[in-house]
Input
Amino acid sequence: MKIKYELLKKEKNTKARRGKLHTNYGTYDTPMFMPVGTLANVKTLTPEELKEMNSAVVLSNTYHLWLRPGADIVEKAGGLHQFMHYDGPILTDSGGFQVFSLAKNKEKDIVEEGVHFKSHLDGKKLFLTPELSIQIQNKLDSDIAMSFDECPPASASYDYLKNSVERTLRWAKRGKEVHNNEKQSLFGIVQGGAYEDLRKYSAIETVKMNFEGYSIGGVANDNESKEDMYKAIDYSIPYLPEDKPRYLMGVGEPIDIIEGVIRGIDMFDCVLPTRIARHGNAFTKYGKINMRNAKYKEDFDPIEKDCDCYACKNYSKAYIRHLIVCNEALGGRLLSIHNIRFLIRLTEELRSAIEQDRLLEYKDQFIRDYMQKEK
RNA sequence: GCGUGAUUGGUGAAGUGGUUAACACGGCGGAUUGUGGUUCCGUUAUGCAAGAGUUCGAUCCUCUUAUCGCGCC
Output
């Protein structure tokens, strides 16, 4: 079956919503945070560990799996779920984001038919089209497929964005026409930068195509300001249907997730918790901390005393610091567990705040703590 | 004892009679938002074993001392 979004409650004071996502693998609460597992794995973690931290949907990536091991191999393995031993919902990104960062000459390489670019592995010339992206995702057999969109840089001009909105609409239509997988849902993507008229137009036209969900793209790219990100959401949300999930692509930082929820977003994904973990950083209620700092050398307390994650229940900062400093993989693993659990716990708290109509108070308190840095 | 060669930051080490003493590692900070990241960026010796001398000027030349290595009695 395709996924279904069930709206349970809207907050009184904001546009925030509390809902449920019904999938082939069960029903999950929204707003939710989805860890990123580009290569059919959330780096260093097993599916069992993800379940233990109450993680639901996992992301994977069309472009990367297309190159290695190849869609046919995943198909032979029985689809992504079997291949990666994950019996939960999987969302595949279309590859648009990757391909556009690999397309050197935007004007020449991005054409109406698709995108020319070179493989980051061997430099081989490749061509990805909206149809091919969807076909690959069909083979991968994810639960949610994303339309192949044009993801412009934050610095793009109004005219560039206008064209990319139009093209994204045409590509969405082409992808939808070849999409045939009764078990897989397809999401459309709203573009348009921080321009009200473009976002409005993009949202209205995308919704006309009737996707199972809608995402807001082109956000959190190269130094985009927070204000522009919030504008992108605010200008898009009013035109998205109440009964479909809304997904803010690539976000993000704890405060961005809160701001997104306040504005009506249901789903988030981000590489941040796992990436900063591998580089030795941890999210905490009082801000992000760098575990390499000398002050943790003899700190035998957990990262967060009241955190229920496996890392905090069993290991000290001094030990994790030691692992990180020695470049041991277990250090990154423990921090990944903590950071993902931190964001998932954040969404759990946001859900109960919505249920109690106290989201703005929650946000104020969170920001006060988070900006405080250290206890 | 005599002869001889060394002595540069936490480490391995470049280097020159004249503005800020390479580079690498380590240390200390920072970054990171639809993952091309065991990555990237910043910072880290007011000093070249110690003292004296030559010189306008010495880490680089001379002498003394100290320490270490090598050779010979």
Summary: The mean pLDDT of chain A is 94. Residues 271-375 of chain A form one domain.
